[in-house]
């Protein structure tokens, strides 16, 4: 079965109950949870099946002095199971065994009394007993429980666990009548690895669940569990070309000042087009005044000058020529070209400079170009300061022209602590002199001063980013996303003249979806979505996109040629595969309210992420991670079959494209 990450034990119990549906409503069934962790799982199973719930307490008989090693177990009803191999190998005497049995028997009795509050153990003879735990590793405790249960002469024993190694499940078939494992991860590391929340279950929680099960009405046999796909289908909100109705969009956005629009790949035209359409509506009717994108600061600002009518570029295509670094198609594509042209036309109709909509890049890869932009600005406003800047940035000069990450890495690693201090000093000088520079020419000068200051920050953070690449991916990832959020905040502050500026952000899902709801959090990663939620709680919305199949513009390797590749159908167990099963071309799900769909999607599932490189030969390892979608986003839009974004420079390789094939095997 495909790997699955459960939100918590109750989520695992609900999944397990679905695999035991044939036992629903049967009067001979009793569910026994192995305390303590197995009881929350068993409670959900018993609730769905309409069966009584109880506990089957088992205590390990540890070898004295080596208590972690089990020589047997004692179970409810006083049944003792001894591992003869361990007893013989260690020469353990019967007196020692009796002493340990007496000691553990007292603890077992205490727990039974605490859990049952005086109630007797249920009659198990001739009944179907479903034994539930929260997971198995070696299965030794479960084996002991099954041997002990046989003494009660049940009619049938079913072992049910959310997660276990396949080998352990197979071994238990020798002593159980049926074994149900919801997932069998391979390789298997630990039971807790299959859970998002594996907090310890307390005795009080066990008692509460047993009381709740005893007082709740049993489910009627006519009731059927609604499938997760049906829940999603009923909650789906219609969209057209990936765009919800104006009413739905505005209801989602509300009064938020920051709206984050994601994408599941950097090369899907449908995502770009839907973001552009929604952004137009937000600009025209909700007062949004800027678009901030996952692009380098100098390149984005060149577009900003053009759309505001203050640059030298003749048209939108020329304004986008700053995007020469791989991957050029991210921003030099047909959708962005059209959108930038619309921004210019819209701004040309606005007389007030403050009413014009801007375009900004948030990223930090432009170390060398940002150095050049700072010096160019100072040459114009303060030649003496420009000379000081040349001297301070001199530690970068001998690395030649900027060719992207290769240059930045070399430049940053060549720069020592002295250079780092020079970069900081240069930023401080710009900030100190900023008011004086801006006072000379008014609003446009203020914009240019802001542009120069942000370039100085890019130099500082980019140098640190490239150095951090040697200390590990998490460090560099976190530094980059912090920089993007700091830049976003700086843009918002700069544009907030009287009222707080409203900004739309375009970035990849992996940046905009809250990292705390993904497996990245376990690696110590944070991202833009998390930081924006923390800094602007209640004043932001983030919307993600997913797709099942189609085509995408991507390369085989970093710096490679743009290709039009076929996106393989999503993997089983993924959120995209679940959305595909809904059977609709496209739809939106909103998680702003506590709906059943939100509950379904708070279970962790595989989610696909395609960046600028697509490697279908390593699809699972390269492009999937686990996430709780309803916690990751405020809403998500699924477009089942999507098409590649069209680069402005279309090569013969892109034109030819990759033809779909029978997947995963040719026939």
Describe the protein in words:
The protein is α/β, with parallel strands linked by helices and 667 residues long. It contains 27 helices and 20 strands. Residues 219-225, 398-413 and 662-667 have low confidence and may be disordered.
| Amount of beta strand | 15-25%
Number of helices: 27
Gross geometry: elongated
- Quaternary status: single chain
- Which consecutive residue ranges, at least 5 long each, have pLDDT under 50? 219-225, 398-413, 662-667
Summarize, please:
Mean pLDDT is 87; it is low at 219-225, 398-413 and 662-667.
SSE layout and pairings?
Blueprint: H1 9-19, E1 29-33, H2 38-49, E2 53-55, E3 58-63, E4 66-75, E5 79-82, H3 84-90, H4 94-116, E6 128-132, H5 140-150, E7 156-163, H6 166-172, E8 178-183, H7 203-215, H8 228-235, E9 239-240, E10 243-244, H9 246-253, E11 258-261, H10 269-286, E12 290-296, H11 297-308, H12 316-319, H13 334-348, E13 358-363, H14 367-381, H15 383-392, H16 394-397, H17 405-414, H18 417-441, H19 443-468, H20 473-495, E14 503-506, H21 509-512, H22 528-535, E15 540-554, E16 563-567, H23 575-581, E17 586-590, H24 596-600, E18 605-608, H25 619-623, E19 624-627, H26 629-632, E20 635-642, H27 652-656
Parallel strand pairs: 1-2, 1-6, 6-7, 7-8, 11-14, 11-15, 12-13, 12-14, 15-20
Antiparallel strand pairs: 3-4, 4-5, 9-10, 15-16, 17-20, 18-19
């Amino acid at each position: 079965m495909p790997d699955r990450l459960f939100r918590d034990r109750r989520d695992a119990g609900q999944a397990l109950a679905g695999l035991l549906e044939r036992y629903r409503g049967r009067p001979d069934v009793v569910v026994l949870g192995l305390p303590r962790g197995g009881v929350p799982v068993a409670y959900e199973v018993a609730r769905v099946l309409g069966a009584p719930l109880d506990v089957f307490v088992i205590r390990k008989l540890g070898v004295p002095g080596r208590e972690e090693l089990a020589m047997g177990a004692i179970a409810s009803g006083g049944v003792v199971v001894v591992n003869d191999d361990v007893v013989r190998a260690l020469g353990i005497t019967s007196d020692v065994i009796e002493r340990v049995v007496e000691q553990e028997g007292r603890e077992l009795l205490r727990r039974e009394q605490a859990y049952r509050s005086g109630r007797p153990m249920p009659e198990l003879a001739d009944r179907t007993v479903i034994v539930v735990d929260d997971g198995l590793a070696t299965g030794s405790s479960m084996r002991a429980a099954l041997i002990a249960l046989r003494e009660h002469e049940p009619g049938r024993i079913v072992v049910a666990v959310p997660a276990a190694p396949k080998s352990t499940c197979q071994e238990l078939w020798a002593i159980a009548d049926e074994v149900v494992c919801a997932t069998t991860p391979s390789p298997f590391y630990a039971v807790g690895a299959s859970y998002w929340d594996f907090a310890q279950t307390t005795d009080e929680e066990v008692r509460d669940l047993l009381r709740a099960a005893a007082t709740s009405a049993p489910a009627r046999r006519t009731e059927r569990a609604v499938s997760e796909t049906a829940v999603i289908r009923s909650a789906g909100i219609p969209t057209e070309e990936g765009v919800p109705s104006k009413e739905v969009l505005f209801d989602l956005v509300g009064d938020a000042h920051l709206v984050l629009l994601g994408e599941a790949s950097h090369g899907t035209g449908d995502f770009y087009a839907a973001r552009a359409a929604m952004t137009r509506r937000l600009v025209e009717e909700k007062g949004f005044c800027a678009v901030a994108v996952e692009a380098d600061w100098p390149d984005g600002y060149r577009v900003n000058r053009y759309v505001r009518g203050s640059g030298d570029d003749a048209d939108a295509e020329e304004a986008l020529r700053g995007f020469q670094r791989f991957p050029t198609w991210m921003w030099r594509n047909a959708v962005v070209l059209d959108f930038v042209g619309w921004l210019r036309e819209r701004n040309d109709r606005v007389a007030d400079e403050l009413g014009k909509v801007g375009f900004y890049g948030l990223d930090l890869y432009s170390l060398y170009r940002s150095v050049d932009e700072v010096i160019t600005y100072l040459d114009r406003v303060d030649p003496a300061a420009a000379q000081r800047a040349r001297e301070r940035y001199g530690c970068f000069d001998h690395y030649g022209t900027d060719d992207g990450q290769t240059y930045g890495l070399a430049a940053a690693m060549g720069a020592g602590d002295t250079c780092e201090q020079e970069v900081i000093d240069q930023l401080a000088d710009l900030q100190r002199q900023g008011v004086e520079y801006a006072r000379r020419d008014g609003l446009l000068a203020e914009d240019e001063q802001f542009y120069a200051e942000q370039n100085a920050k890019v130099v500082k953070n980019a140098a640190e980013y490239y150095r951090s690449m040697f200390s590990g991916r998490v460090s560099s990832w976190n530094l980059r996303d912090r920089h993007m959020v700091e830049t976003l905040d700086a843009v918002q502050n700069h544009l907030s003249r009287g009222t707080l500026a409203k900004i739309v952000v375009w970035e990849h899902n992996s940046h905009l979806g809250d990292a705390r709801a993904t497996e990245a959090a376990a690696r110590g990663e944070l991202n833009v979505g998390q930081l924006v939620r923390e800094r602007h709680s209640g004043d932001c919305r983030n919307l993600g996109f997913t797709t099942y199949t189609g085509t995408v513009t991507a390369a085989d390797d970093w710096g490679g040629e743009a290709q039009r590749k076929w996106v393989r159908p999503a993997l089983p167990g993924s959120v995209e595969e679940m959305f595909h099963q809904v059977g609709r071309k496209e739809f939106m799900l909103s998680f702003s309210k506590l709906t059943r769909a939100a509950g379904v999607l708070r279970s962790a599932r595989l989610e696909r992420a395609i960046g600028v490189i697509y490697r279908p030969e390593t699809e699972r390892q390269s492009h999937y991670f686990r996430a709780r979608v309803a916690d990751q986003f405020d809403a998500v839009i699924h477009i089942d079959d999507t098409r590649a974004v069209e680069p402005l420079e279309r090569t013969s390789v892109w034109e030819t494209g990759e033809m779909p094939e029978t997947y995963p095997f040719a026939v």
